[in-house]
Amino acid sequence: MKIATFNINGVKARIDTLTTWLTESAPDVAVLQEVKSVDEGFPRQIIEDLGYNVETHGQKGFNGVAILSKLPLEDVTRGLPGDDTDEQARWIEATVIGDKAVRICGLYLPNGNPAPGPKYDYKLAWMDRLYTRACDLMSAEEPALMCGDYNIIPQPEDAAHPSAWADDALFLPQSRAAFRKIVNLGFTEAFRARHAGPAHYSFWDYQAGAWDRNDGIRIDHFLLTPQCADLLNDCWIESDIRGREKPSDHVPVWVDISI
DNA sequence: ATGCCTCCCCGAGGGAGA
After folding, report:
1. What positions of strand B are covered by protein, i.e. any atom < 7 Å from a CB?
2. What is the DSSP string of A64-108?
3. Any atom of strand B under 7 A from CB of A164?
4. Looking at residues A118-131, what average pLDDT do you find?
5. What integer pLDDT is reported at residue A89 of this predicted model?
6. pTM for the structure as a whole
7. Using CA atoms, how far apart are residues A175 and A196, in angstroms rounded to an integer?
8. How many angstroms separate the CA atoms of A4 and A36, rounded?
9. Which nucleotide is nearest to A111 (CA to C1')?
């Protein structure tokens, strides 16, 4: 089963980009972030017509996540537990059943800039709640993964110019430590389980020709429970998508798992 | 790089993104 995560940067503005990609690359499951649409405005029918079940968790204006799946989606839940006052749509979970069942969590982790400040405080608090959910997934001892736009550059090699990010919420030591704390529960970071070295990125800014200069960062990740990592065949970044017409500033990241 | 684009809100220009 091939599962992709893709920050689409506006599902309505980029519906042609999305449907072309779904048709040509044909993920079994696509986990979307930054759909920037309320659930009622989501272009559900167009995607269903391509053979996908659609589950959304949107809000007005920004954020918003979704899971698209050729197989049925079961036990769908919306919102990251731990703060009933959090209005931001950044988390959705569902179970997909192939040969085995896998719990798929889609996340859009807060950006956190400027740091320090209230937005950075929100990012760190959100990561605390993510840690708690991650502990529960580990305790279940079942195939599960958390994927999406983590807004975390894990290591200097994950940025073309790490010094440019030194004071940024995506790369501050405290941000990276919070990410490591989750990984160190025993998750496998799928891309680094399969590929070493620099120059592998999942985001390139629209400005100043960042794509043409390959001035990117790797911030879209898959974290797999041990039972899911046992099933991992491959992980890759579909970087050529960034060079197509009307691209998102992110590209899809994929895993292939034996499910 | 204190933002060079692009999305959303709507119907001008500001918030948000990373």
Report:
1. 1, 3-9, 15-18
2. -EEEEESS-EEEEEES-TT-TT-----EEEEEEESSSEEEEEEEE
3. yes
4. 96
5. 96
6. 0.97
7. 22
8. 19
9. B18
Per-residue pLDDT at A164: 93
The residue lying closest to nucleotide B9, measuring its CA against C1', is: A61
> Residue A100's pLDDT is what?
92
From the Cβ of A225, is strand B under 7 Å away?
no
Give me chain A's average pLDDT, please. 96
Q: Residue A82: which pLDDT band, with cuts at 50, 70 and 90?
A: very high
* Residue A166: per-residue pLDDT: 94
Q: Is A206 a catalytic residue?
A: no
Cβ of A41 near strand B (under 7 Å)? The reply is yes
- Domains in chain A, start-ordered, CATH in brackets? 2-257 (3.60.10.10)
**Catalytic residue status for A167:** no
